[in-house]
Design goal:
Layout lengths: L2 E4 L2 E4 L3 E2 L14 H14 L3 E3 L8 H10 L7 E6 L1 E5 L4 E4 L3 H15 L4 E6 L8 H13 L3 E7 L3 H8 L6 E5 L31 H7 L3 E5 L30 H21 L3 H10 L14 H8 L8 H8 L10
Length: 335
């Protein structure tokens, strides 16, 4: 696989989001043994940038990733997160906690679950409006000084918040949703499209966070580059099991979903010209946003892993990108 650079380290141009192996999507299909095998297959393919977090299954996902990389730890760059606490695993209710005490405590918990002595990339999952960002970020910087964390990142922030943190300690990565139907991180007008409930930047607009990263030596990490599976063209009806959060997602309601298939039609047309899959086109579009962009599509299945990895080899033309940039705006907010 082609590589990109994270903090001086070559990593696969396409990473792996591990969340869905533990919760949020089709939880009846959860299979820990198969997921461990899948993560090892990813490393074999050169997919070395692995993303997890404490809330994903309330610690389950970190434990799973730790189990998978046992004996191969040096081959993987592992990112995990702090700042969100699961209050109800069934309903997926969470609260924010950016207190220095939580940051330190959750880092110790993550190190234990991952079975590692150091976290490669430690994100603030969401900014806690009740705690000054300087206090949270300062506590995270102390973890770097203690050798427990190598690099720090932010998730779902605006450029102003990124700059505030960067003045205290370097921001190595920003992770936010970016896909053909969610372009807020590129400075799209109108603010965050259905921001995560309680986001400080909701309604303000994040600014061009992708450009901020390029200008400040950080990588930008798109999560949900496949639009939670929608851009693959395989989701054609609003039919999800109860544990799948897409069942309550505005964009996946029946009428919105039907309208949003117009976006998929364009992706399919570009894919047909290249002999590629819609998933590969959607991921390649994120890669085309800059050499510092490392998307992290998630999957539980080997065939989709290989499909996603193949996007690293797909070079979209200027005409392709123009066509994709012109897809209709999505119907429905993100959350």
């Amino acid at each position: 696989m082609r590589t990109r650079t994270f903090a001086g380290t070559p990593v696969g141009a396409v990473g792996l989001g591990c969340m869905g192996m533990s919760w949020a999507y089709s939880e009846s299909e959860r299979d820990d043994t198969a997921s461990v095998e899948l993560i090892n297959e990813a490393l074999d393919l050169g997919v070395t940038f692995l993303d997890t977090a404490q809330p994903y299954g309330d610690g389950h996902n970190e434990t799973l990733v730790g189990r998978a990389v046992r004996g191969r730890r040096d081959e993987a760059v592992i990112a995990t997160k702090t700042g969100l606490v699961v209050e109800d695993l069934h309903t997926k209710a969470m609260r924010r906690d950016g207190s220095p005490e939580h940051v330190k405590r959750s880092a110790e918990d993550s190190l234990r679950r991952l079975g590692t002595e150091v976290i490669d990339l430690y994100y603030l999952h969401r900014v806690d409006p009740a705690v000054p960002l300087a206090d949270t970020w300062g506590a995270m910087a102390e973890l770097v000084a203690e050798g427990k964390v190598r690099r720090l990142g932010l998730s779902e922030v605006g450029a102003a918040q990124a700059g505030e943190a960067h003045a205290i300690h370097p921001v190595a990565a920003i992770q936010s949703e970016l896909s053909l139907w969610t372009r807020d991180a590129l400075g799209a007008p109108g603010g965050l499209t259905g921001a995560f409930p309680g986001d400080a930047t909701a309604g303000e607009g994040p600014g061009d966070v992708v450009a901020w990263c390029a200008g400040n030596g950080a990588v930008f990490v798109p999560f949900s580059p496949l639009g939670r599976g929608f851009l693959t063209g395989t989701v054609t009806a609003a039919d999800f099991e109860d544990s799948d959060f897409r069942g309550g997602n505005p964009r996946f309601q029946e009428e919105a979903l039907k309208a949003n298939l117009r976006i998929v039609d364009v992706v399919k047309a570009v894919a047909a010209r290249h002999g590629a899959t819609p998933a590969q086109v959607a991921i390649a579009w994120t890669l085309a946003q800059g050499p510092h962009v490392i998307p992290i599509p998630g999957t539980k299945k080997s065939r989709y892993l290989r499909d996603n990895a193949g996007a690293a080899e797909l070079d979209l033309t200027a005409a392709d990108l123009s066509e994709l940039d012109s897809v209709p705006a999505p119907v429905g907010s993100r959350y």
